Amino acid sequence: MINIFNKKTFQVAFVVVVTVVFIFFIQSHLDYLKKAASMSPLLIVAVISMDILSKACSGLKIKIVLKKFGIRLSFKEWYGLSSMSAYYNYFFSKSGTVLAATYVRKKYGFNYSKYAGFLMGDVATVVIASGVLGTVASLLWENFTKNSTHSIVVVSFFILFVMASLVFFIPKFRLPKRGIMTKINSAMDGWYSVKAKPDILVAMFFLNMAIIVIFAIRYYVLFRVFSDPVPFSICCLVSPLANLTQILSVVPSAYGLREAVMGGMTKLYDFGFVSGAIVSIIDRVIMMLVFFILGPLFTYMLMKKTGYDREDRRDAE
Fold first, then answer.
1. How far apart are CA 157 and CA 149, in angstroms?
2. Which of 142-155 are b and which e, b meaning 16 or more Cβ less than 10 Å from the residue's Cβ?
């Protein structure tokens, strides 16, 4: 009997439902699909190049952190881990992240607690970068367009910034050693070891800011394809939220959720829900073309000599 409360079952069912919704949604807006089909090859290459660049930024974060702990990754490894993570995250939420952690654990002995610390720092700096860019974009939108921005947006970005910043002031603590609390202690130990190297966090902040800006540029380019007059400042508002949705979501690669967030934001600023949702869908399709080529390629290149097997992949899922 299928357990409907099983995490994998829920994720698969959610993906199926969202895919059906996507199909009906696109059928109702075929004019957008026709415009997407007429995109020039040069423009598609430009968007793909930006996606490859964002994956390079993600890989550099892994490289910088491990280098501080005495591990030097080759280009094949740090870029490959980034591509592989993105690929497997499309199947089950965070499974690609677990695979990357398992790789560096098996090959270099980099323990899971330190990798968990890296992930905590990564999420914190993503939220801070999103809060900074979102607040600035909101203020620029109001200043240059003379249109009143929605106060809830500014307040939300500011709250994100403050809450993420508080993580850096958490004092050391130990929970009783039993059950999940043991894992929390281990993760916090990893976080303290990463926090003790502030230059890592600074580098992660700027790399995450670069990723968010690249997202915004991609969206801006795609909006131009559909002749939608969405300004770059709005793309800088949408991009942080779309990126956060993808990182924090329990659904594989925020499937459907990112489209809903983008559509909601463009509607909030009077550019229509359809515009934002369609651009997000097209962007996702292009991203998947990249992931489904580079992901399996780097998985084979990295895993064939590390003693990594299918059982590890099943455990990650």
1. 13
2. eeeeeeebbeebbe
| 197, pLDDT greater than 70 | yes
Q: Is the pTM of this model over 0.70?
A: yes
Spatial contact of 241 and 156, defined as CB atoms under 8 Å apart: no
pLDDT tens, residue by residue, 38-61: 778 888 889 899 999 999 999 999
Give the number of other CB atoms < 10 A from CB of residue 253: 24
311: buried, middle or exposed (CB in 10 Å: 19+, 13-18, 0-12)?
exposed
- pLDDT (tens digit per residue) in 9-27: 766 776 777 778 777 777 7
Place of tokens 């970068």: 129
- Domain layout of the chain by residue ranges: 7-31+51-316
d(C-alpha 18, C-alpha 12), whole Å? 10
**177 backbone φψ class: left, alpha, beta (φ>0; ψ -120 to 50):** beta
Q: What angle do CA 286, 63, 73 make, to 5 degrees?
A: 105
- Structure token pair of residue 233: 């400042």
Helix (H, G, I), strand (E, B) or coil at 178: coil
